[in-house]
Here is the input.
Amino acid sequence: MVWKAQWNNQRYRVGRPEWVRELKLTFPAALQAGLKESESRGESAIVLMDDQQVLAVFGLADQVREPAREAVARLQEMGVQVVMITGDAEAVAKTVAEDLNIDRYYARVLPQDKASIIRRLKAEKPTAFVGDGINDAPALTEADLGLAIGAGTNVAIESADLVLINSSPLDATYALKLAKATYNKMLQNLFWATGYNVIAIPLAAGIAYSFGILLSPAVGAILMSVSTVVVSINAMLLRRLRLRG
Here is the structure.
């Protein structure tokens, strides 16, 4: 995208360096050297142009927010592989990835290509995607779990499975931690519920009668009630889960 303005009857443009070639403007050698130096530092470069040439190069560097750094670290502790997908330049993406200890990243990704990358990642293992913009909507829909930042666009929010109301990347770790704990509780409760049927019903049917073991209907009813209570208490223990711990 190129922003345009006019001052003293002179038109100026501000945009990405790639537009210099598109507009067939002159790019002074000194400014080209400044562009390379800026990109080598992992900065996003933009250029100021008039109708003939590039006038200046500006290097913009994103500061990694501490919640994002902590979120990446926690996800990695949980055994989740973190992949960064960005439209920024390769140098910028590499710098941020190294800062966050992310081994896998995709740079210069166009909006329509994000969904394709998610499809490839899904072929390897279940994939969640966190996004906040209109350009993220297709990827949010494509992912197994789409998480939208609450402060993002309405399109992204409507495309997601889960909305992070506090707009903090850490909330994504809380959501995955709660999901894993809930899944484990489901397996535990399935074990308790199935255990009653596998053991108590055959005993009540007299399968061990020759060994002097016979489960009376009254005892069977008690065991059924105990099984229900155990499953309920086990489910209630989810309230003790510390998401921020």
